[in-house]
Write a structure and sequence with these properties.
Layout (H helix, E strand, L loop, with lengths): L6 H31 L2 H34 L3 E8 L5 E5 L9 E4 L6 E10 L4
Antiparallel strand pairs: 1-2, 1-4, 3-4
C-alpha cells in the first residue's frame, strides 16, 4: 500500500492548529473569570492573546482546507472515449457520472452512426 506524501505533515499541522484553538479558547474563558474577579489587567492580556490565537488557528485551518481542495482538483482526471461503430470516429471527453463502457451516447456527428462509450481511463498530473 502506497503512503501519500505529506500525510504526516498534514496531521501534525492539523493537531497543532486544533491545539492552538483549544488553548486560545481556554485563555478567553480564563480572561472572563479574571474579569469577574476584578483583575482587569489579566483580563485584557489573556483576552487579546486568546483572540490572536483563535485568529491564527482559524487562518491556518482555512488555508489547509483550501490547499486540500486544490490538491484534489489536481489529482487524477478521468476521460471517456466515444467511438462510432460505423465510421470509427473517435472523441475523447472528460468523464461524466453515469458513463459506462458500451453506453449508447447518440448519433455520430460525422456519419450519423451509433456513438458508444468505448473506454474510460484516468491520467494523473505530470510532476
Amino acid at each position: 500500500m502506497e503512503k501519500k506524501r505529506g500525510g504526516l505533515y498534514f496531521h501534525v499541522a492539523l493537531m497543532f492548529s486544533v491545539g492552538v484553538l483549544v488553548y486560545s479558547g481556554w485563555l478567553i474563558y480564563d480572561s472572563i473569570l479574571s474579569y469577574g474577579e476584578g483583575q482587569t489587567e489579566k483580563f485584557y492580556y489573556t483576552l487579546i492573546l486568546g483572540l490572536i490565537g483563535v485568529a491564527l488557528a482559524v487562518s491556518s485551518l482555512t488555508t489547509m482546507k483550501r490547499r486540500i481542495q486544490i490538491i484534489k482538483t489536481q489529482a487524477t482526471k478521468s476521460f471517456t472515449v466515444e467511438l462510432c461503430e460505423k465510421c470509427g470516429f473517435k472523441k475523447i471527453r472528460e468523464f461524466k457520472v453515469g458513463d459506462y463502457v458500451h453506453k449508447k451516447i447518440g448519433a455520430c456527428t460525422q456519419c450519423g452512426g451509433e456513438l458508444l462509450v468505448n473506454s474510460i481511463y484516468a491520467e494523473s498530473p505530470e510532476e
